[in-house]
Amino acid sequence: MENNKKTTNYDFLTGIISVVVGIIYGVLSYNIKRSPMGNPLAPSMFPLILAACMIIFGVILILKSDLESTKRAFQKSKEMATENDRHSQRMIAATVVASLVYALILERFGYVISTVIFMMAMLTITNGQKWVKNSIVALLFSGIVYYIFFYLLGISLPMTPFINL
Amino acid sequence: MEVLNHLFAGLAIAVQPYHLLLITFGGVLGTIVGMLPGLGPATGVAVLLPITFSMSPTAALITMAGVYYGAMFGGSRSSILINTPGDGAALAATFDGYPMAMNGKAESALAISAIASFIGGLISVVFLIMLATPVAKFALKFGPAEYFLLMVTALSMTASMSKGNMVKGFISTIFGLMIATVGIDAQSGISRFTFGVLELQTGIDFLVVIIGLYALGEVFKAFKAIKEGKKVPQTKFGKIWITKEEWKKTWLPILRSTPLGFIVGALPGAGGTMASLMAYNNEKQLSKDSDAFGKGEIVGLAAPEAANNAASVGAFIPMLTLGIPGSGTTAIMMGALLMLGIQPGPLLFTQHPDVAWGLIASMIIGNFILAIVNIPMAGLLVRVLAVPPKILYPLVLGLAFVGTYAISNSIVDFYILIIFGILGYFMEKIKIPTAPMILAVIVGGTMEQSFRQATRIADGSLGIFVESPLAKALILITIISVAYPAIKKIVSKLFKKTGSAQA
């Protein structure tokens, strides 16, 4: 097993996570309210089987891997990370924040306004601070999507307050 | 000749102008989505989903199917021209497609990939027509126990065929099944894993899970590409067609790769990527001139392209006839059908023949439309490759959010969407396949219901799962599919040993 020294993977960690998820899920499954009719354990039965399988597969994965590979993998990802990797991670973080804000404001400000804000934020993240181009794309997107959904497809989206558009 | 009657009825539905328009729309959209690096048919169908909510089931399904096989046509365009596969199924097209373009044969490459796609797709539709009704009729014999086992088989096959390793495939599957248990239990009315959140009582919508993984997750992964500079595709072409010699070389490989692709596509979990890679390797082995492969051999482009289109048609078999989607894309289509109140499965062909046969007939017409779109208009289409990803990705995200909102009008789904987007990104990092999880989320609910029905019939005994011959056969298939990689390893080791002993 010489080449084992070079392997890097997150299997050990994945196995641990699986076992933990399995145990938590198992405890939650066991604590599901008992069914008033039929077999009282019926609603927990299938989840309990899933919990058991998850723990078993997690243990298999732990046994098949070793802690060192995972340690190496973390080290490698730290050392090998290029400026580009870090940049894309920052973009992902920024996108998640923008999405959360979008979720918070959507029903308050209405679809059109919130979406213009969200798209502006997203385009600034990916395209940089090109305000004119970004605003045009953001406005067109939210206007066209709103028109298609509301008027052509008849799917209601949150309306803009005061003007009821 | 009942089948022909159904087919003609289906054709009558498919040629209605509105449906023709949708087939073209879906196909062209699919071609474009397929061409764009990082975006495959699953993302395309996921983003398109909300548009179908207001359509009839037939219209919704033919549009989404158009996107699916359209993406198979389109995927190879970017493989050939910029050496970047539009999706996994187009990976094999880079091996010889890009060298062909480098050798100044871009026209032949674009033409043969579209021709192979067309032939592969069309022949597969014939297979689908012949097989659909018998499979559906056979599936009607399944009781709850067999149906449960069938889902176990499908999920195990998906897990064992997933890239990376099988154990992680199973972990992904079980996690998906866990997600499916969230919400009020249909049989007892007891809420499970809702943590007091009102919106979770109806469960986590699998469409949101899919959009999260395929739209958000894929865009997250693709962010890296924004900085990596863009490759500029060739946009001026001569006549896009092939020579007689090229046709002589490729027609047999195309015909051979089609059934292969169809079968692989029909198996749960295998799909277009595996089909095209298998077809490529197969032709490479059969070829007298296998050294030419990888250097612009036209056969190496034609075979995988026929196979991946055949696979996309084959994937409809389990979804339509058994109600078990075999790929991420068909899973989304099944989700859309369920949303419109139609349950795919053995009864689909008797209860909604218009939907089933309308779809099948639309695929015949769709293949002709796409051949026209992809050959004479290829030069026009590839201009889409010039759309900068930095504009494109925000648009995909915007569509993902509006689609999610349209599903249930709930903000809570936004948070679930974001969570699964992040999860999709990290699953890729630690190399856990997402496909098994998606299939599990979709069949999870039905699977548990069948399990409980079966145990109730048998008064709590588990013996019912091994009683009928069909059940035994399904268990056997499951065991083989799980043990297959191990068996293969042992066999190859034995061969190596005897080989080295002789040497």
Radius of gyration of chain B, in angstroms, nearest whole number? 23 Å
Strand content of chain B: under 5%
Low-confidence sequence ranges of chain A: none
Count every helix of chain A, treating DSSP H or I runs of 4 or more residues as helices.
6
Tell me the total number of β-strands of chain A.
Answer: 0
| Mean pLDDT value of chain A | 86
Beta-strand percentage range of chain A: under 5%
Q: What radius of gyration of chain A results from the CA coordinates?
A: 25 Å
pLDDT averaged over residues of chain B: 87
Instruction: Please name the two chains that share the biggest interface, counting residues whose Cβ lies under 8 Å from a Cβ on the partner chain.
Output: A-B, 65 and 60 residues
Bulk shape of chain A: flat
Distance between the termini of chain A: 68 Å
The string of secondary-structure elements of chain B, in order, is HHHHHHHHEEHHHHHHHHHHHHH
- Overall structural class of chain A, as computed from helix and strand content, comes to mainly alpha
Oligomer: heterodimer
- Count of strand segments of chain B: 2
Helix content of chain A: over 70%
The largest pleated sheet of chain A is described as:
none
Percentage of residues assigned to helices of chain B: over 70%
Transmembrane segments (chain A): 12-32, 44-67, 136-157
Organism (chain A): Fusibacter ferrireducens
Domain DUF1468 (chain A): 14-158
Keywords (chain A): Membrane, Transmembrane, Transmembrane helix
